[in-house]
Amino acid sequence: MEKASVSVKIYNSTYALTTSASEEQVLKIAAEVDRRMQELAESKKLLQTDKIAIWTALDLAADRLELQEKCAAMEQELQQKCAAAEQKMQEKYAALEQEMQQRNAALAEELQRLQARYDRLLAAVRER
After folding, report:
1. CA geometry: angle at 123 spanning 117 and 126, to 5°?
2. 60: Cβ–Cβ under 8 A, 6 or more apart, which residues?
3. Torsions phi, psi for 22 (to 5 deg)
4. Of 43, 1, 38, residue with least CA distance to 22
5. DSSP-derived secondary structure letter, 20
């Protein structure tokens, strides 16, 4: 993908970023970093940009780690649910297969009875 330069303003400074990401995406990310830096500077009463940037980086890293942990937990839960659903399907399949075998056996017995009856009727007709 082709790289382009995008100008962003973060915490009262302008930066020219060269990136392959879309301009819209870069602007959204820069706006989020700017918002976080402004909030942290105000809430922690920080004046030094480097300290504000470090706090922002730490907050963003903590958010990312929390999301990764949530994703891992959700993935594990999904795998467990899939395994349970697969087990349930296998049990239903086995039950249906057993039912089908029982029905087939009953039909085979009925067919034998009908065949025997047919044979008796045919023999009776031939005797007459």
Report:
1. 145
2. 33, 36
3. -70, 150
4. 1
5. S
Q: How many C-beta atoms surround the C-beta of residue 114 within 10 A?
A: 10
CA trace torsion 15, 17, 21, 27 (10° rounding): 10
Per-residue pLDDT of the chain (128 residues; tens, 9 = 90+): 789 999 999 999 999 999 999 999 999 999 999 999 999 999 999 889 999 999 999 999 999 999 999 999 999 999 999 999 999 999 999 999 999 999 999 999 999 999 999 999 999 999 88
Tokens of 67: 């999301």
Say what the alpha-carbon torsion angle 43, 48, 50, 56 is, to the nearest 10 degrees.
10
Name residue, tokens 């937990």: 73
Residue 69 has φ and ψ, to the nearest 5°, of -65, -40
